[in-house]
Amino acid sequence: MPLSDQDCILRCRNGSPEDYRLLVERYQGPVFAFVSARLGDRTLAAEAAEEALVRAFFALHKLRNPAAFHAWLLGIAGRVALEFQRARFRRKEVPAADDAIAASASHPGAEDDDSALDEAIAALPDAQRELILLRYFQNLSCQEIAARQRLPLGTVTKTLSRAYAGLRELIAARENQSSNLEAIS
């Protein structure tokens, strides 16, 4: 049985920092998707996600409620993404989104399906994204999510249903955009 977030955090705090790798494995994808949506640059997002995970490790002693690790980590990731955006603005770089569009036009299909899904998840509204992450990245059942989030089961299932529909729309729109870029080039 895999360790819960709380167990990993307690073990890290009690002198077993190598258990943090389990949290990294569990949250690396969701954190990347979260910062990727804000930064629009996969390379910069990978850097920001790594920075957020490192900062979270060194701040574990400040986390009051280990059950809220996921939300706490996303808060850190949001602040890191904002710092990266400000740094990019100060350097007056060319927006990375333009570079990504140009790269995908010259190399159609270069990005894999996982990146499309990560970006689609990151584009969901916060409430939907959080439930998707709990359902599929933490493998929680709808009842477990309802208990953890203190929501009625019907609200969880309805929100997940809306999130699925949103993901389908976002991925279909992305595929249409890719098709249009291929037709242009």
Structural overview:
The chain is mainly alpha-helical and about 180 residues long. It folds into two domains: about 1-95, Rna Polymerase Sigma Factor, Chain: A (Orthogonal Bundle); about 110-185, Arc Repressor Mutant, subunit A (Orthogonal Bundle). The chain has nine helices and no strands. α2 crosses α3 and α3 (about 40-60) crosses α4.
Mean pLDDT: 80
The percent range for strand residues is under 5%
Largest sheet: none
How do the SSEs run, as a string of H and E?
HHHHHHHHH
Task: Determine the N-to-C terminus distance.
Answer: 50 Å
- Structural class based on helices, strands and sheet pairing: mainly alpha
- Roughly how much helix do the residues carry, as a percent range? over 70%
| Global Rg | 18 Å
Quick overview of this protein structure:
This protein is mainly α and about 180 residues long.
How are the elements arranged and paired?
Elements: H1 5-13, H2 20-39, H3 42-58, H4 69-91, H5 96-106, H6 113-123, H7 126-137, H8 142-149, H9 153-184
Q: What would the keywords be for this entry?
A:
single chain, 185 residues, mainly alpha, Rna Polymerase Sigma Factor, Chain: A, Arc Repressor Mutant, subunit A, 2 domains, 9 helices, 77% helix, 0% strand
